Amino acid sequence: MNEDTLALLAEPDGALAPAAPARERLAALDVGSNSIRLLVAEYDAGAGLTIVDEVKDQPRLAQGVATTGHLDTAAMERAMAGLARMRVVCERRGVRRIAAVATSAVREASNGEDFVQRVRDELGIPLRIIDAETEAALSWRSVAHHFRMDGARTIVADIGGGSLELIGAVDGLVESTVSLPLGAVRLTETHLSRGKDIRREVASLRKHVRKVLRKGFPWREWTNPVFVGSGGTFTNLGRMSIGRRGLPVPDSIHGTNVPTGEVEQLLEWLCTRTAEQRRNVVGLNPERADIILAGLAVTAELLDLADARSVTVSAFGLREGLLLEMAGATTPAGNDPLRALREFVERCQGDRRHVEQVRYLALQLYDQLGEVLGCTPEERALLEAAALLHDVGQLVSYRRHHKHSYQLIMHADRLPLSPRDRAIVALASRYHRKSGPKKKHEEFGEMETADQAIVRRISSLLRVADGLDRGHTAVVESLQSELTDDRLTIKVGPRLSNADLSLELWGGARKSDVLAKLLGRDVEVA
Fold first, then answer.
1. What is the C-alpha separation between 193 and 179, in angstroms, rounded?
2. Co-location of 110 and 168 in the same domain
3. Could you tell me the CATH number of the domain that includes residue 169?
4. What is the mean pLDDT of residues 260-281?
5. What's the confidence (pLDDT) of residue 331?
6. pTM assigned to the model
7. Is 356 in a helix, a strand, or coil?
8. What is the Cα gyration radius of the chain?
9. CB–CB of 25/42 below 8 Å?
10. What pLDDT sits at residue 20?
């Protein structure tokens, strides 16, 4: 344990905080240039991070730093008040260790060290300033934990209030990191606060950003990468992208994919809005209405220089990286693309053997029947996700657990699924038992027709696979499908030659109704 980690948090009178639960409770505090964020969590090697609480404040410490070189007094007072509240949250939540870091604004300010010492002395929070390289490494750690990175060239961009961190990785291994003075607050103050025509100001800003980016990163080596965006600019971009389609903005925006062309369109449209009008844009945090233009200008130039087709939004960043570091978690190199899904099953206390068996059987059915059903290649991954997650609702209760699964999947905060894919997987899981998809069901009826068809197809396979492990004993080894003009026969092979498969055969046949309807054939499980 280093000096910047509190072993125990004390109450104001010196007494120890409430006893920690069985799993150690940790807290990570990110004192950024625009926002201050606290994340309280527990960590388990199987279940990953379980979020207990989070608090956000927006004192905008970077205000004025680009022009004056020091932290503004009022901004520091706002930050101190927010940090005091966060300390109380840590005490009440039984946090045993806390790590707190300050980034660009505090790092660059002439009075940054004085501010850090004041936080330590007055609040007992072990705040420390980290350099740009460490900041980038923590952001990368978080992204690598939540996304598959093997077999691809990846750029991760984290746009803060004061700086932009860029990380380039190949096959999950970091090859290039750079920090550039292209934060949203900084650029807004230096380029967009002059009261002139906003479109001309943004055009001028983009020229400046492009010049800095060209000099600061070896773009020729990073053409057409997988592009991941972390930070408030990107999460707000993802929310606006969904909101402008007239869709309800989900709680979790993690994994949302926004095409490059849409970024340009959004930026162009926002330039026609006044600051007050931007505050009312669906999906945009009103507190970011003044700095979103600068953030999107940087995003647009990044995507253009990288020749990236789209940006994938990561809802996790430095705080999660800090927690993983505190917990001693290993950083996966993308070896398990289903890691986040399996961690969620563990957090929901799921039967891992059963869901892995259902996944195994469902994929066999897909490989044999997918083409006949008209499945697209993407549906295999969606079926795989639904197979792993279909029973998470049993955390609430067995009865109606299919409906509970839908709710838990829709509101889970760390699943690597876009909002569209999340809805498909959640509904397929909801239909793994009881009735099949029906348009009178509100969530299904509101889907686009093409997505309804996907839910029907993958739920039809999931239902049979789940029935074929009715006893949760994984006794089925192989499936062989035989299709004739009027019948589908699924021949079931046992894992052990003397295994009794009567329960599994009954379960598979009983849940073959949706599949039979789609095929227009009787289904026999033998």
1. 24
2. no
3. 3.30.420.150
4. 95
5. 53
6. 0.74
7. helix
8. 25
9. yes
10. 39
CATH number for the domain that contains residue 71 = 3.30.420.40
How many whole angstroms separate alpha carbon 184 and alpha carbon 290?
A: 9
3-state secondary structure of 397: coil
> What torsion, rounded to 10 degrees, do the Cα atoms 217, 218, 224, 230 define?
-20
- What DSSP character marks residue 113? H
What's the CA gap between 96 and 101, in Å, rounded? 17
Domain assignment of residue 232, given as a range: 133-317
Q: For 490, left (φ over 0), alpha (ψ -120 to 50), or beta? A: beta
- 166 falls within a domain: yes
Count of alpha carbons within 13 angstroms of residue 260, beta-carbon side: 16
Check residue 16 and report its DSSP letter: B
Closest CA to 443 of 468, 417, 407: 407
Instruction: Identify the domain boundary among 317, 348, 374.
Output: 317
Between 465 and 23, whose confidence is greater? 465
Backbone angles phi, psi at 470, to 5 degrees: -55, -35
Mean per-residue pLDDT for 437-445?
94
pLDDT recorded at residue 335:
56
CATH, residue 350: 1.10.3210.10
Point out the least confidently predicted range of 6-15, 106-115, 363-372: 6-15
Q: Which two tokens stand for residue 18?
A: 């409430």
Q: pLDDT-derived band of residue 251, with 50, 70 and 90 as boundaries?
A: confident
Q: Picking from 35-44, 139-148, 327-336, 417-426, which range would have the lowest pLDDT averaged per residue?
A: 327-336
> What are the C-alpha distances in Å from 288 to residues 282, 305, 510?
12, 25, 53
3-state helix, strand, coil in the chain (%, to 5): 50, 20, 35
Please say which residue of 74, 104, 130 terminates a domain. 130
Residue 51: how many CB atoms within 10 A of its CB?
A: 14
- Three-state DSSP at 487 gives strand
Following DSSP, what letter does each residue of 207-247 receive, concatenated? HHHHHHHHHHS-GGGSSS-EEEEESHHHHHHHHHHHHTTTP
Q: What percent of the chain has pLDDT over 90?
A: 78
> Which SS3 state, helix, strand or coil, does residue 254 take?
coil
Q: Are strands 310-314 and 257-259 parallel, antiparallel or unpaired?
A: antiparallel
Q: What is the dihedral of CA 356, 359, 364, 367, to 10 degrees?
A: -140
**Residues sharing a CB contact under 8 Å with residue 308, sequence separation 6 or more, in sequence order:** 155, 224, 225, 226, 227, 260, 302
User: What's the pLDDT band for 18 if we cut at 50, 70, 90?
Assistant: very low
Tokens 């838990």 map to which residue? 408
* Centroid of chain to Cα 168: 19
